[in-house]
From TrEMBL:
Cofactor entry: Mn(2+); Mg(2+)
Binding site for a divalent metal cation: 16-17, 108
Name of encoding gene: rnhB
UniProt subcellular location: Cytoplasm
Pfam family, one: RNase_HII
Protein name, entry field: Ribonuclease HII
GO CC terms of this entry: cytoplasm; ribonuclease H2 complex
Residue stretches spanning the membrane: none
Superkingdom in the source lineage: Bacteria
């Protein structure tokens, strides 16, 4: 059973990103503040859920959250500042967009940079431990998937509908055959040596 949050008495947001290991497309982060009476039987780490369940949860989270925000950091910025910094930047921008600023931030993973003077805690595998981080993981994943699905229409050869920009054999075969698109991350090793 996932816990609601780390500090029950604080206005606390959970934040997570999606798309860090992709070869193409943005890295996407979400920040979510859930009400204190929020619970849901199958809300957990987005990677453990089917696409159908993620989309059902996305609607529930958007309707019931106190506030939420989602941000894409694009390829050019990823190539400039590296993927770790881009992931953290996407989280910061999402937190900044929240209509209520949190008193505490819970981050999925083990790396973060201070956001203003707000106290925070990194939680390894936090999307499987806390509801607000799990909610952020659902939003980050569904918004990023939607972005890649739309891109697929213009670049069908890369099969982004299926792989969402991750380094699958099909995706790499398409890079070999057709070269790269403006949506590929040039700082990444797109093909094995």
């Amino acid at each position: 059973m996932l816990k609601l949050k780390i500090h029950s008495h604080l206005l606390e947001c959970g934040t997570d990103e999606a798309g860090r290991g992709c070869l193409a497309g943005p890295v996407t982060a979400a920040a979510v503040i859930l009400p204190n009476d929020f619970h849901h039987p199958f809300l957990t780490d987005s990677k453990l859920l089917s696409e159908k369940k993620r989309l059902i949860l996305k609607e529930i989270i958007e309707k019931e959250a106190i506030c939420y925000a989602v941000t894409h950091v694009m390829m050019e910025e990823i190539d400039k500042i590296n993927i770790l910094n881009a992931s953290i930047l996407a989280m910061h921008r999402s937190i900044e967009k929240l209509t209520q600023q949190p008193e505490f931030i819970a981050i999925d993973g083990n790396r973060f940079k201070p956001y203003k003077k707000t106290p925070y805690e990194c939680v390894v595998k936090g999307d499987g431990k806390y509801l607000h981080i799990a909610a952020a993981s659902i939003l980050a994943k569904t918004y990023r998937d939607e972005y890649m699905t739309n891109l697929h229409r213009d670049f069908p050869a890369y099969k982004w509908l299926k792989n969402k920009g991750y380094p699958t054999l099909e995706h790499r075969a398409a890079i070999r055959e057709y070269g790269i698109t403006p949506f590929h991350r040039k700082s990444f090793r797109l093909l094995p040596e």
